[in-house]
Every structure is written in C-alpha cells, then in structure tokens.
User: Fold this.
Amino acid sequence: MYAAFFLGFVFVGTLAGDSEQKYRWVVILVYTAAITAAFYGSITIMVYLFALSDQVTDLSDYIPWGFVNIRYWSHVATWLIPLLALAALIGPLRNQRLWQFFCAMGAALWWWVVLLSTARGTMLGLAFGVLVAVLFIGRPALPWLKVFLKYLAYGVLAWVFLSVLVPSLFADEVSGRSFTLDSSSRMPMFLEAWKMSLENFPFGKGPQSWLTHEIITEEYRRTSKFAHPHNMYLMWAAEYGWLIIGAILILAGQAIRLFWQRRAEVLARGAGEQALPLAAFTASVSAALLHAGVSAVFIAPGSMLVGFFVLCVFWALLVPNRVKAPKRVSAGLLTTVAATAILGLLACLWLREVAVYHQAMEDDRNLHYESVPYGTPPRFWYYGNFPRPPEEMIH
Assistant:
C-alpha cells in the first residue's frame, strides 16, 4: 500500500502536461475542497444545533462526530485548510462575492472545529507549513497568506460565538476539551518505536510488528497501547527499517530540488498567480509531513485518500512542463504489455493477501468486541487491536 501511495503520486504528478493543464488540476482540486468543506461545515452546524437542543455543553463529544473521529478529521483538516484560502484567489469564480462568502464560511467552520477539538497536531503543522511557504516563496505568497490569516480570524470569532457565548445561554457552566502542552503519552511510544528500529537494523521487524512485538521498554509497558506509535517515521523505521527511511529521504530531497527550481522560475517571472498555488500546496504538504511526526497521518483512510490527490498536484507543480511530442507507434509496446501483465499479477497476489487478512479479522472481531467494548474507528481495518501478540490471538 505504501509503495503504491508514494510511487503513485510521483507517477501521476509526472504525467502532468503544460502549465495550463496543471492550473486546471489545481482549480478542480481546491474548488472541490472548498465546496466539500462548506457542506461539511453546514452539517456540523446541524449537529451543533441538535446538541444544544439536548443541553449538551461539551460539544467535542459530538463534533467532529465524537472523540474517536477527532484526530482522523484533523488529519484531513491539515491537508485542506491551506487550500481553502487558495480557492478564493484563483479560478473562474474568484471575483464572485457569493463564492468568496462560501469559501470564507467553510474555512471559518473548519477552523472552529480545529479550535473546538484542540487539534494540536493540525495547529502545529499549519504553523510550520505557513512558515515554510512564506519564508521560501516570500512576497509573492503574501496574497495567499492574507486570506489564510483572515480565515483564521473568522474561525476564532466562530469559536468565541459558537463554543462560548451561545452555550453559556443554555447552561451555567461551559465545558470543553482543554489545551495542554504535554505529549499525551506519546514519548513512551516514540522511545519504544526507536528501540524497535534498532533491534533488526536496518531492515526493521516486519509489517505490523508494532502490534505483535515483545515490548522492549518498561515505560511503554506501563502505558496505554495503541495501534501505532503516533509517529509515522519511527513506525516505518521500526517495521520496514531505516533503509525505507533512506528511500523516503531521497524522495524528499528530489522534491526539495524541484521546489527550488520551481521557486526560481516563479520569482523570475514576477510571481503573479503562479506563486499562489505553489505557496498553498507547499504549506499543505509541509503541514501534513510535520503532523505525521506526531500522529497517524499516513494510516487513516481519509487522510491518505485526500493526501494522495494533494501530493499528485503538488508534484505536478514541481516537475517541469512536458513538451508534447508527435504521436507515433511505440517501439516498446511489447515491453509495456509485459510490464502491465506482471504488475497485474502482483496486484492480484496482493489483493488475495488482503482478502486473507480481512477474513482473519472477521473471525477475530467478535472476540475483540467481547473483551474490548469499542466501536469501529474510520480505519482501513475494523479496529487497531489486530493482529495481537500470539498468546492473545484466537486459535
């Protein structure tokens, strides 16, 4: 899955054509994000009104859809919030007041949910992403930055009104999630993953070994157990080895090199609209990569699906424009067919193993629910307690 994810966005982004086609990609993605965010925000307001009618003051129990969904939602917010500001600056509707209001409303409601749910990873990631975009792109990024900060201000006002003033009219005491500066028990998991990565250096202990390995550190033994160490890079190092981290660093280095070239081109042309997509997508990707250091950004389905499209467009913005070549019959047609057949066979084998895993999880589900009365989070699997150490598994 990870191979398809990382190689996939590089492949799709490299296939992008000239600057006009890339611009269409950008507009389609950011407009889709803005429309979806606005409708999602509207539905959130509906849930908010139902909660108030039931005299619920701790809204984070229901928005976004309960505690178990808070962090999964925040991953998507990290990817999309920088793009909401871009949607108001480009495309055919950028001069329409109704569209401007639509974008502002959606962004304000998403910022409100970020503040309501105290999504610290999102806040930290967005601060880092904005800093990277403004620091390296400079003055051409300021129009995007102004809209981004304006939407943040709208979100703060929405939080004051919806989370403080209105609930205070329905209850004597307003409660909610508190903002803390501790690591939320992440440090023992970080240390455990680090120790794991050194045990079979540099090859790792195998996929999903985080769930089944013998616990190494006493600190982690005494804390709550989670399906991932809340740090994607340490998890990959522990399970797939530091060689994979090296490959990711090579990919990141290539992205930095292409970004630097693209940045020079944009600045040389006097900025204009070309700088705005580069700034927004740079902020989005940088924010998500930092967020992945403290959460499961590259495990949650919503985050991976949204992130894949964002990374495709980001990579398309970085690579040089392709020159259209005259159409001709490819001499390597036989090679292409053979390669496609091999990839198809490998895909079938992979899907077969996925089916085997899914069936095993089905068999284990009832036993898990009997011992751990917990619902099904929005993951690629039913729950995060499978597979388990052999002595805890059903036989």
